[in-house]
Design brief:
By secondary structure, this protein is an all-alpha fold. The chain is 78% helix and 0% strand.
Length: 217
C-alpha cells in the first residue's frame, strides 16, 4: 500500500472517529434554559482534546448546533473567517439576547416583599430598569418604539371614541331635561285654546261692525 493510500485511509478513519465523538457532544439551541458559558467550555475542551485545527472546528461546530442557533450559523457562516471570529460573534449575539430576556423577566416578576422598605424597593426597580435599557439591542429598541407608536395611536382613537360617546350622552341628558321642564300641552287644552281664540275673534269683529255703523249714522 502506497503512502498516499495510507494517508487516505487514515484520514477517512480519523473523520469517522471525529464524527462519532462530536455527535455525542451537547447541543446548543439558543434557548434560555441552557448555560452559554458552560456549553462553550465543554465544546472547547472536547475539540482541544481531539486536536482539531481552527478550520476543523469551524467545519464540525454545526453538528453541535440546533434550532435557532443552527439557523443563525447557516445564515452567517460566510462571516466566520476564523474560529476566534465565530466565538466572538456567537457570544455577542446569544449573550446579549439572553441578558436582555433575563432582565426583562426580573422586571416583570419583581415583587415587593412584605417587610421590604418601600424606598429600597423603588431603587432596586429603577436599577433593574436602567440595566435593561443599557443591554437592550437596537432591534429590541425598534420593537419597543413601534409598540409605543401603536399604543399611542390606539389611545388617541379610544379617547376620540370616548369623547364622542360622552358628547352624545350629554346631548341626550340635556334633551331629556328640556322635555321635563317644558312638558307637552295636552291635546284637549289645545282644542279649548283654539275655540277661545275663535270666540274672541268673532267678538272683535262684531264690535268693529257696530263702531262702523255708529260713525255712518
Amino acid at each position: 500500500m502506497s503512502n498516499l493510500n495510507q494517508d487516505d485511509v487514515f484520514g477517512s478513519l480519523r473523520s469517522q472517529l471525529l464524527l462519532s465523538h462530536i455527535e455525542k457532544l451537547p447541543k446548543f439551541d439558543g434557548k434560555l434554559n441552557q448555560s452559554l458559558s458552560k456549553w462553550l467550555g465543554e465544546i472547547q475542551e472536547a475539540m482541544n482534546m481531539l486536536k482539531l485545527t481552527d478550520a476543523e472546528k469551524l467545519f464540525y461546530i454545526s453538528l453541535c448546533l440546533e434550532g435557532d442557533a443552527f439557523e443563525w450559523f447557516l445564515d452567517n457562516k460566510h462571516l466566520f473567517l476564523t474560529w476566534a471570529v465565530f466565538i466572538e460573534k456567537f457570544i455577542k449575539i446569544f449573550r446579549s439576547s439572553r441578558n436582555d430576556d433575563h432582565l426583562f423577566d426580573e422586571l416583570c416578576h419583581f415583587e415587593h416583599g412584605i417587610n421590604e422598605n418601600t424606598t429600597n424597593y423603588g431603587f432596586e426597580f429603577m436599577k433593574l430598569h436602567q440595566e435593561k435599557k443599557n443591554t437592550t439591542t437596537p432591534i429590541s429598541r425598534l420593537n419597543e418604539q413601534n409598540r409605543s407608536t401603536i399604543h399611542s395611536t390606539a389611545n388617541k382613537k379610544n379617547n376620540a371614541t370616548t369623547t364622542n360617546i360622552i358628547t352624545e350622552d350629554t346631548n341626550m341628558v340635556i334633551g331629556s331635561v328640556k322635555a321635563d321642564l317644558v312638558p307637552p300641552v295636552p291635546q284637549h287644552f289645545s282644542a279649548m285654546n283654539q275655540i277661545d281664540f275663535e270666540i274672541k275673534e268673532e267678538t272683535l269683529n262684531s264690535e268693529d261692525k257696530r263702531e262702523t255703523s255708529t260713525i255712518k249714522a
